[in-house]
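## tool: complex_structure
## caller: assistant
## args:
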Amino acid sequence: MREIRAVHRKSPAGILVVAGTMALLVALALGLAPGAWAQGKTLNLSMLAGFKEDVLRANLPDFEKKTGIKVAVDAAPLGELYKKQLLALSTGARYDVLFMDEPWIPALSEFLSPLDERVKGVDMQDFVPTTVAAGAFQGKQYALPVDPNVQILIYRKDLFAQKGLKPPATWEELLKIGKAMHDPAKQQYGFVLTASNDLQTINYMLLAMWSYGAEIVDSQMRGALNSEAGKKGGEVFLELVSLAPPAVKTYTFADVNKAIQLGQAVMGVQWASGAKPLEDKSRSEVAGKLGYAVAPKGTRVSPMRGVWTIAIAKSSPNQDAAWEFAKWLSSREFGMASTRYPSAISAIHSPRVSVLSDPGTQQALPYAPVLLDSLRVAKERPRLKEYADIQDSLRIIAGKLTAGELKLDAALREMDAATNKMLGK
Amino acid sequence: MGSVQSRRWFLVPGVIFLLVIDMVPLVYSLWVSFYQWWLVRPRDIRFLGLGNYLSLAADPAFRRSILVTCTLTFGAVLAEFLAGLALALLFAQPFRFLRPLRAVIMMPLFVVPVVGATMWRLILHPEMGVLNYYLGLIGLGNPQWLADPTMAMCALILVDAWRTIPFMFLVMLAGLETLPAELFEAARVDGASWLQAFRFITLPLLTYIMLVAVLIRGMDVFREFDIVFVLTGGGPGTATETMQMLNYRVFGLGHMGQANAIGVVTLILVALMCYLLIRVVQRSR
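## result:
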């Protein structure tokens, strides 16, 4: 016995083998117990405040119970979220995970962890392909899709049925119907959109311009909206403004919803995110009377895509826990829960085909089939680091156009000049 | 009692506090304004010298924002000054029934600016707003307060005036109450009218206080942000985009050099305005 002890005492290799084996066993045990390694970890999440935050908060206990990872939510309104994330990430992130709109990913990619290796373990086939692209930049995947958003056409199904009309497939058809049903004396307006210097205004203008083939930048990376296609789209946009309620020049995203809910608008384009409250009987006079369709085409169908994604800060010390959270937030499990969340205003949809085409989802969200169809043909905004700057300039110029400070030709010229300035051309 | 020399040491904590609170951020801001520093490209920070200032000088949006800021400052201060003075003159009269109304007049001063602006946004809403409802009842149509460029500026001036007329009123009333009653009695004995007494006694004696009040409010309105942000966001178009709104926009996009340059220019303009007003104040004494 003494000899054996002596041998052991004198054999460092034996000690290493024993220690290594024990370490391996511990590692295996931790690996086999889901989330055990993450017990006690807290993730800081930067989140959009309001109607997406509450769905998340309602479902967070499930994630925390399953993984042992706590999530501290720091929510900010849409207008402040990009500023907050940019400032936080560029000055040594206080966030581990960030819920971000897809146009921000190129600008913030420098501060995000590439996920290419990690996504190999995820079933990406179930995602609508365009939503996966929303999280990528220059060939690298920086974020997973969580909440797919896209512009959709909303129309008064009841009024259309009375007149025997079909939902318009082209802008010409839409304008014709809109003009025929525009009756300000009865507070019934042909179309609703925003025409203020709100961000949505330039998104509406781009929807029309894109549909005629215009692009923000050409292949030479120069501003390209000042074209025949851009002009045609701009004219359609101004015609839409003329069919809108008189206060449209102060409208925001919420005002568009309000006009539809009050039954003032015969048609409108809205992000799918805004559609759920329209079907709430306690808030909407037209609940159950609305129809949904893919946004009309000019020469092509190109509704704007705006997928909310989840990304991991490069500086986060909790990369694995953050990845667990990102996986959960983009999972089918969360998608099924969020699309059925019993709230009239909350809306996180799912980027997964299996969720959006599920009969239960389509019953809960009547616009789900249109959301799915629109996502398949949706157009992304240019994937440029400078896009936030370009978008802000275009927003201001679109506001000047609708306020009458600029004519369409001058606005298009100014838009291209602003884009070229941002891109250093 | 220590010597004058030793007593000066008591100033040190105050000087250090002032340096840390005021001078360090100011110098840092000035230093950053000489650089091209975009948060999106943290490895591309370059010294530009006066580059940011030159690009601001060449930027029509910036020049326009100065004009908008000056228009708002002039309009708001003028409205507040006239209304504040008129109310102070009224409340300086010996009417007992006016006393309780003083508290009512002061109320807007206690409202948080953002809350007040949000409330006014609702009041001025063309469809849901109570103001347009009553204007409609008396046949004055449906003015687009925040959608028309000129009316949006008027709305900003109106809301700013609503919030700070009480301040002007309070300062002017305090000034009026310090004026010697004998002068007015003598004027009355000499047969001076109310207008003459105002022109030749009240105005000259109140000038100093008026100018101080205008100086304080001028500085405030020049740096006004919350009301503009909530009510118009700088729109319609760029009709109400003040220097502070532009600064907020540029800062929000992460252009630290440009944003700090706008801040420095604002500081210079406010300082210049103060200098001119202080010269006028000193002359009035």
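## assistant note: The first strand of chain A starts at residue 42 and ends at 48. Residues 2-32 of chain A form one domain. Handing back to user.
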